[in-house]
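Re-run requested by the PI after the first attempt was lost when the workstation crashed. Everything re-entered from the original request form. Ligand of interest: C6P.
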Amino acid sequence: MQSTKTIFDSETIRKDFPILRRKVHGKQLIYFDNAATSQKPKQVIDAMDFYYRNYNANIHRSIHQLGEEATAKYEEAHEKVAGFIHADSYENIVFTKNTTESLNLLAYSLTDGLKKGDEIVISQMEHHSNFVPWQQLAKQRNLKLKFIEIDGEGNLDEESIKNNITKNTKIVSLTHVSNVLGTINDVEEIAKISHENGALFVVDGAQSVPHLPVDVKKIDADFYCFSGHKMLGPTGIGVLYGKKELLERMQPFLYGGEMIREVTFDDTKFNDLPWKFEAGTMNIGEGIGLGAAIDYLKNVGMKQIQNKDIKLVQYAMDKIKGIKGTTTYGPKERGAVVSFNIAGVHAHDVSQILDSDGIAIRAGHHCCMPLMSILKVPATARASFYLYNTEEEIDKFIGALGKVKKIFAI
Ligand code: C6P
């Protein structure tokens, strides 16, 4: 791939993604389901292929050349992630399976000192991955789970933030970017409020790290979670960033091989960070693939990607709003998703008709059932964009929405 630091050329980018050449139902694929998972450039596919063909071995165990090479590349991937989100070092970066596992790890490991009546604060817009683990923890430990409300536009309500985060709050866990509304939350400000009240601040970055520059230290997040597969990397690899002093104090989530320093019949000393949290044989090829994805994103430039996202999403919003009978959800300033409904048509039907034209969107509750109840809809249709999408594709998508209306005679 040519350097795209100064020129963001969609056609050049698109050539790197083999899947974008395929047809679906005889039509050219238009992939607008990027919030669910992104497509993968050949650079990522090749990095994983090269690992399996040339230096596949277990890591941190084997004193042979292949083991050394695999270990070096896997560790390098931690370094790349650290650099990408401006963490101090690889020690802050724990590899997990995905955002869901990172958040569960926290809900299992952040329990020291929690007592009956302590409060955890999340919001009404959270994905189930940042909802259910805290809800279950609250039930098991007799804690109170509180919800920051959203306002009519789909932003977090400022009063509700202040009213809910108090001296009783122990953990605040919020999404950076909503996967339904596209809302970009002011995590820097909420980190400040959380810390002023003595609470830990956790960020669900599943929809932010792939789409905008993230600086965990500037945000002052205590923990920050995200998934490789939404940022051009493979499935099966996710990240938990944590402040070193907090990770050091936490009990490991999984016990077994690799996460130990010494085991006797009486006790176990745990390994150094981050390996203390990476028990058993990890997803080595996937970690290496994530490293390649970061190289790719850095080469394009995260600011460039964010600018392109904004352009695409505003273009799509304007066009959808122009179609009579549609409702869009969420604020004007947003990340790269548009959720919408067409009056009288179920979102699943919208998705199915679009699919027959080769256009992949998602329809459903998007793992945000509590939010759907606030929006008073069972489901939405959702188009979500990424760096390889184009305005021409959006034009075709808008044309296909016209077809939906025709079929339903509305
Ligand atoms: N949202 C979507 O289509 P995992 O599945 O662990 O990689 O990511 C979970 C997750 C957590 N938080 C947010 C804000 C998310 O958007 C997601 C994944 C996908 O919206 C799949 S449900």
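Saved to the shared folder this time. The mean pLDDT is 96.
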